[in-house]
Amino acid sequence: MTFIPSFDQARATPVAETGPDDLMSRIGVQMTFAKDEEIYGQGENADLVYRVVSGTVRTSRFMPDGRRPIGDFYYAGDLFGLETGDEHAMAAEALSDCTVLVANRQALRAAGGEEELKRLMWAATVRDLESAREHLTLLVRKSACERVASFLLGLAARRQGAHVELAMGRQDTADYLGLTIETVSRMITQLQAAKVVEFKGSRLFRICDVQALQEMAAG
Asked: Mean pLDDT across the stretch 84-109?
């Protein structure tokens, strides 16, 4: 078994707020967004590129029947808003107070040339494709317990700390995992009862037994 220090021994480790020194960081303009504020809307023109400096961003798609599947969560350093078409297929909102770098695609091309822009876009596209593949596998092949366990492991890996602060609430988590909020709460309660994870409030958790959580995620 692999045990993680208790809440008394450490605090949550935030994602670094500095991004790489590249084309986007050189010409992007910083903008701030309050929690739940829209960054861009579904169906809006996709001529801008975005990078998270601090905070967390959520992308989601509003369906005609009222459902709201979540595409992904983006953290400091992540590029988002890239589209293959002319419009945004999903909306993007600040999940917490955020600072975001924003740049026009034409300005990026003029400042760095086509090749540097392609490198920037390729790295972001690979990240999005890998994330989409993992998300699809989670939704199609995994049980409720496996989904929640995989989600918590993924968050811990992204945050790179033993004690992880959740930017998203239970409803966002449920929408991302394709579950009801009641099911997510029940799975978390079961994981805590088994002493696999421990929550302090609803937004801070630590993994008590990494091996057990990995086995649950694998099924």
From this structure: 89
